[in-house]
Amino acid sequence: MTELFDQGLIATLRAARSLTILTGAGMSAESGIPTFRDSLTGLWNTFEIEQVASLAGYLQQPQAVWGWYHTHRQQILAVQPNLGHVALAQLEQHISSVTLITQNIDALHQRAGSSNVIELHGTIDTIRCSAGDHGISAWPDQPDLPLCAVCGAPLRPDVVWFGERLDLAKIQAAEFASQTCDVFLAIGTSGLVAPAATFPMTARAHRARLIDLNLEDTPLSRHARHRLRGPAAQLLPALVA
Ligand code: BJW
Questions:
Q1: Which residues are annotated as active site (predicted)?
Q2: Which of 46, 64, 179, 225 has a 20 to 30 Å separation from 6 between CA atoms?
Q3: Is 121 a catalytic residue?
Q4: How many folded domains does the chain comprise?
């Protein structure tokens, strides 16, 4: 680890026995995937959020939203994990217990080698029926809107939109990791979306040290013991070195 960081932070990480990490869209920004809320490039400035990120929006315009996600998936498949993703995967060699909770659907952590990843908001690799529990299938190659073989409803990305329940087992695993870690590292998330934003607070309530890595302050920042300001793909490799 390097002189770039204060000794308290280095000591905190060196002493960590159980580390829980929460990542958001900022983690993948330097891989070339735009964040949601960035004022200049955020996805939600080019597409109404209700149309992209809710079931009601999807059902109003399934073809348009499907097309948007299909293009988004092509973009994800074309990019690579960045040095920040790689650095987080390397942390597993230094710390005996590492749990990585991600809000991202891009699987870049797994591609970088992280082994214990909770995909809180689902994945862009699979699709499911928008009307019922009719199974999961792989993302199709063709861009046309696929229909459920059981009921004929439009199939949808296997992700979690606003107003939708998250997978209970994933919430429980994330809760447990937050309650039992001694260090919690939040990276590149605006800290606005629940329940993800509650996990750093849970960790802090259980006396974990909270590290906040972001380009700017967020609602999480004032609770953090250490605040790192800068791009994740630059800071994380230096921190892990
Ligand atoms: C960098 C960087 C660099 C940039 N380096 N940093 C009040 C009213 C209505 C609803 C609610 C309410 N209070 C709570 C809710 C619930 C709602 C919610 O939280 N709403 C808030 C907006 C208020 N939550 C839900 O609805 C959740 N479900 C739920 O609660 O269910 C309960 C329920 C119970 C019973 C029955 C039914 C339901 C579900 C939330 C699902 C969120 N889904 C999305 C889309 C996923 C699919 C997809 O990816 O396409 O998840 S929305 C979007 O937000 C996406 C993200 O994962 C998520 C978080 O965004 P994130 O990652 O923080 O990104 P950004 O862009 O916001 O921030 C990027 C950050 O990175 C910034 O801070 C930058 O500075 C930083 N940065 N470059 C370091 N290089």
A1: 121
A2: 179
A3: yes
A4: 2
